Amino acid sequence: MSLLQNLKNDAYKGKLMSIITFFFISFLILDFVVSIFLRNGLEKYYGLDSEAEIALIGHSHLMLGIDKVKMEDELGINIAKYTSEGVNVSNRQLMIEHLLNKNNKIETIIYGVDAWTFTGQGLSENSHVLFYPFLNDSNINNFVKNSVSGIDYWSRKIIKSSRYNEGLIASSLRGYFSNWGNLKFGEVDTGRLTKSISLGEYRKIENNKENIDILIKTIEELQKKEINIILLYIPTIDIINQVEHQKFKENLAIFRSIDKNNNNVEFVNFLEPFSHQYDLFFDPIHLNQKGQNKVTNELIKLYNTNNLKYD
To answer: Does residue 189 sit within a domain?
Structure first.
């Protein structure tokens, strides 16, 4: 009986191990398939899988400010829109490297700037989450590894589908449906904004030298590749622009200086007249659909008239 019982136990253990192995392998396969599907959608959304000649690089300010599809239709060229909420100048440097590793057709980078470009605080402290899906890129892998704990890094390295949060999944699906539309409806509440400012509840301007140096280094790297750069100021509402007016002017002076000292850089400032047209804004820094349409038309006009110094 003891021998028979042992044989039964061995058979049970063997069957149990087979079941566990089957489910483990099935999980890994499903995880791999889901991650590939989501990553392909993201690459479509960001334009990483395209042969774009122009690329938009920035955070939500630029994302909501320019209609990529309208520009493509009007100019007859492919455009990559590699934009995401909360990315700072360091993140954008990595995004540009990532994009150029995937696409050697880029001729112009349209780089979104504003009065807070060089401010250290106020953007997302978790912007590294944007890069989780692209851990196969060595530069991104090193960046993420140095930004998160070992547990966070290895869990996402092994379980690939865990690299995607709700926002990334939504962007991936938008990539498959070719949907880059501005979904911000409504207009800014200027009364509420004025009250918030009076209470000191606004983002301060800080021209951090380290961040300025990062942008200059990014420009130098693009110069070596003979890629032109447009530093594009999408309008921000005049109410917020005037709060720290002297710092605001100093910031614009930095962009003008970079333009003056670099033949392949153009500072394009759309503050006037749009910063005074409140019906174009969803909030103090983001345009609504109407605002996006107007600013996109101005950028298209700039291209169509060849009114750029490096044309």
So the answer is: yes
Q: How many domains does the chain have?
A: 1
Question: In the chain, what's the furthest Cα-to-Cα distance?
Answer: 94
Do residues 115 and 248 lie in contact, with contact meaning Cβ atoms separated by under 8 Å? yes
In terms of Cα–Cα distance, which of 239, 231, 235, 238 is closest to 288?
Answer: 235
What is the residue-level pLDDT of the chain in tens, covering all 311 positions?
Answer: 455 555 456 566 667 777 888 888 888 899 999 999 999 999 999 999 888 999 999 999 999 999 999 999 999 999 999 999 889 999 999 999 999 999 989 999 999 999 999 986 555 567 889 999 999 999 999 999 999 999 999 999 999 999 999 999 999 999 999 999 888 889 999 999 999 999 998 889 988 999 999 999 999 999 999 999 999 999 999 999 999 999 999 999 999 999 999 989 999 999 999 999 999 999 999 999 999 999 999 999 998 886 565 55
183 and 225 Cβ atoms separated by less than 8 Å: no
DSSP 57: E
Domain CATH code at residue 120: 3.40.50.1110
Quick check: is 238 in a domain? Answer: yes
pTM of the model: 0.90
Alpha helices in 199-244 (DSSP H): 209-224, 238-241
Residue 309 belongs to a domain: no
Q: What is the dihedral of CA 85, 119, 231, 73, to 10 degrees?
A: 10
Phi/psi zone of residue 76: left (φ > 0), alpha (ψ -120 to 50 degrees), beta? left
Neighbours of 9 (CB within 10 A): 10
CA-CA distance, 58 to 35, in Å (whole number)? 25
Task: Supply the range of the domain harboring residue 71.
Answer: 2-304
In a domain, residue 310? The reply is no
Q: Could you give the C-alpha distances from 214 to 58, 140, 250, in angstroms and in order?
A: 14, 17, 18
Token duo for residue 166: 């709700």
